[in-house]
Amino acid sequence: MSTNMRVLRVADAGVAHPFGDERSVIQAFPMGIPTEESDPFLMCDHLQLESDGLARTADDFPIGWHPHRGMDIMTYLKKGRGRHGDSMGNREEFASPGMQWISCGSGIEHAEGGANPAGVIEEGFQIWLNVPAVHKLDDPSYGTEPPEAIPTVELAPGVSARLLAGPFVDGRVGQFKTKQHVQMVDFELAPSSALSYEVPAGMDTAMLFVYEGDALVNTAPVGTSQIALLDATSATQRTFELSARSKPAHVMLFAGKKIKEPVAWHGPIVMNTQAQIRECFAEMRAGKFPPKRAPWDYKKLAAFPEGHPHKA
């Protein structure tokens, strides 16, 4: 019978500027929990950004075209609409709460944003997940999931959960198709509600990020923009107690099996060695990146073939 995992520590998330300008996000990891301890999770940015307005043209993306290799990426929105284009020839929007994900593999380019009128607040997360070396150069894959694909489930009185990735208590598997064995769940707790939850066997990383309100993890207080690191290494201590205090609490669970491989990380590229990083940037300079791509100019909607499902 499972008993409670130990809370190893509670850390403050940091403030990051991923766009290189005044816009900021709250970063749970690696700023709060370093990469070695958060393995296989690389990055979690909690974003609350005010829109400058709808895209001016079909090819206008406020977050312009940029590359990724060697990771899985999920953009999960709680408010606003998401919009995405990529080198595989995908062009889609999605409502919130919904998500868009990419298993980048050997490489993708993508661009984002431009689906919300001026003044609308887009709130959500961008999460990067490492993948084992054997899958770093897989062909890329992609999915867009509307709200109905990730429904909420009541787990206890006043506690709802939305499964994003991995296995769940009701037998479902999350829509984010990750290479590594993980579980990601978004909990929403009414004031004074509580939940006892068991992390799946074999997952030796577990973190709880409180992104709204205040909570108790077992008996440890965890405030807004704080993340609790749990000891998930025991086969018998697999459970945590999560409770809200006088206000609602929104908490994200990140659980997974550690990869335990070297991480070479340069901006949007995550490989195992610096030589692999240099090879990737050489491919970019030579115009050979991404190696798998749509056979048309994917940055121009007018170039999409007639009848393409994303040519609207």
From TrEMBL:
GO terms for molecular function: metal ion binding. Residues 184-289 form the Pirin C-terminal domain. Keywords: Iron, Metal-binding. Binds 1 Fe cation per subunit. Pfam families: Pirin, Pirin_C. Its cofactor is Fe cation. Gene3D superfamilies: Jelly Rolls. Fe cation binds at residues 66, 68, 110, 112. Residues 35-129 form the Pirin N-terminal domain. Belongs to the pirin family. This is Pirin.
